[in-house]
Amino acid sequence: MIRHWASGAPAVLARSGWIAASVVNAGDGTHEHPTQALLDAFTLRRRLHGDAGRGRALDGVRVLIVGDILHSRVARSNVWLLATLGAEVTLVGPPTLLPHGIEGWPVTAVHDLDAAIADTDPDAVMMLRVQRERMADAFFPSTREYSANWGLTGARFRALPERTIVMHPGPMNRGFEIASEAADSLRSTVREQVANGVATRMAALYLTLAGGAA
Predict the structure, then answer these.
(1) How confident is the model at residue 131 (pLDDT cuts 50, 70, 90)?
(2) What is the largest CA-CA distance in the chain?
(3) What single-letter DSSP state applies at residue 210?
(4) What predicted TM-score, i.e. pTM, was given to this entire model?
């Protein structure tokens, strides 16, 4: 298991020939976080389809991923997995926090959160932590402006469709990118994501150690 500040470190180790073992990426820089995407997809499918949803894809499920896309390895892994499972993914954030080259991703990218909610009628809204520790420059004028434009405020949460669930990979900046009203609601999957993360990562380790046998 490797978690590393440098993007691409797990791939370098896996291809190096230095070790004769499988390498599981537990998060590399701002690149990817595959096991987080697995637990998020599992949580989303279970919340939408229940236990009967086992093995089902996410065809047509509409997901908004909102916030600091630029620095989020969670967003990158979720984009590829959710799109592979058939979900329609829309990325929402300020222009300064959307990566270059996003045109090649299987997503729609927009800047207006309220318009995105109205246009997509989302089944799930996944809020991302603003990673200020990775920001050497000012990517937005103020926390107040960010929260007003891209935060899941109480008013914005109450305006969501009743069926829309709220996701967050944690840790959360309460009152900044997400209001406690949204984070603690019955429509929030935050605690489920934490619990499902244990099971999902146990499964990844089991399949790796068992040589892929289910």
Answers:
(1) confident
(2) 54
(3) T
(4) 0.90
Distance CA 87, CA 56 (A): 12
Q: What single-letter amino acid sits at 145?
A: E
State the amino acid at position 118 in one-letter form: A
Query: pLDDT (tens digit, 9 = 90+) per residue, 72-128?
Result: 999 999 999 999 999 999 999 999 999 988 989 999 999 999 999 999 999 999 999
CATH topology of domain 34-209: Rossmann fold (3.40.50)
Task: Give the pLDDT confidence of 43-64 residue by residue, as tens digits.
Answer: 999 999 876 656 668 999 999 9
Which has more pLDDT, 167 or 171? 167
Domain ranges of the chain: 1-31, 34-209
By CB atoms closer than 10 A (0-12, 13-18, 19+), residue 79 is buried
**Average pLDDT over every residue of 132-141:** 59
Instruction: Report the distance separating Cα 187 and Cα 106, nearest Å.
Output: 27
R_g of the chain computed on alpha carbons: 17
Residues in the chain, total? 214
Query: Residue 113 in contact with residue 153, Cβ under 8 Å?
Result: no
Rounded to whole angstroms, how far apart are CA atoms 91 and 108?
Answer: 6
Q: Which amino acid is at 169?
A: P
DSSP output for 128-149: ----GGG-SS-SSS-HHHHHHH
